[in-house]
Amino acid sequence: MGLLISNSAYSTEFDSMGRLKYYDGKEEVLCPSQTKDTAVILVIGQSLSANHHVQNFTTKYRQNVLNYYNGKCYVAASPLLGATSEYGEFATLMGDMLLETKKYKNVIIVPAGIGGTPIVRWQKGSDLNDMVTSVIEGVSRTYKITAIIWQQGESDYLSLTSTASYMNSFNSLASSLLEKNIKVPIYISISSKCGPNWIENNPISLAQNLLINNKQIFLGVNSDKLLNQSDRTPDECHLTGSGQIKLSQAYANAIANNAK
Questions:
Q1: Can you list the domains of the chain with their CATH numbers?
Q2: How many CA atoms lie less than 13 Å away from 144 in the CB half-sphere?
């Protein structure tokens, strides 16, 4: 049973993990068949990967940039079904930008980000690893995932996770994906900044840099360096519209430049 919140303007429903499962006005469309020109992108991590930002976006390509959730496709629009919260996100705009590279005819976004989560909850044997495994199994009935975005790190910076521990947890997550035959590029963020008193070149950003091997793990975006104060909300964590645009463009560039 999800949590139902209602007012005169809209109603929303969340699952037991806080992932959005219903939002008034979502437009369901036919899921297109997957071809070599279809990008199917799993977006995971904490709040920067989910619906926690200022600006709402709706795709300009209503039949081609879609939000896949629970076996159905919807016109991509903030907030996206499958991730936490009910505000803005970056993946819809990223989908439009990918389509405009002409390398893809369809972009299917599979959101599963959970705000405020440390990486240990994503490693094999933990609750969010079980969740993402279930999401992958569901998607696999319709699509083959072609890329994964991993946007996470702020919780671990604040809790003083060590470089080695972060890398071990990430490698456990990556290994569990391989066990599900998900052998696709993972686009990792250099992402640790949240709140005041942040220090650059910290154990989390070091771990994220060390994980990049340009074979399976690629740099998606260095959001610590890319985003300035005006790109973030007053909490110095979440994103304003300009920050969402920058993140969208960085990931679109990374994925398109690596496309075969």
A1: 3-257 (3.40.50.1110)
A2: 11
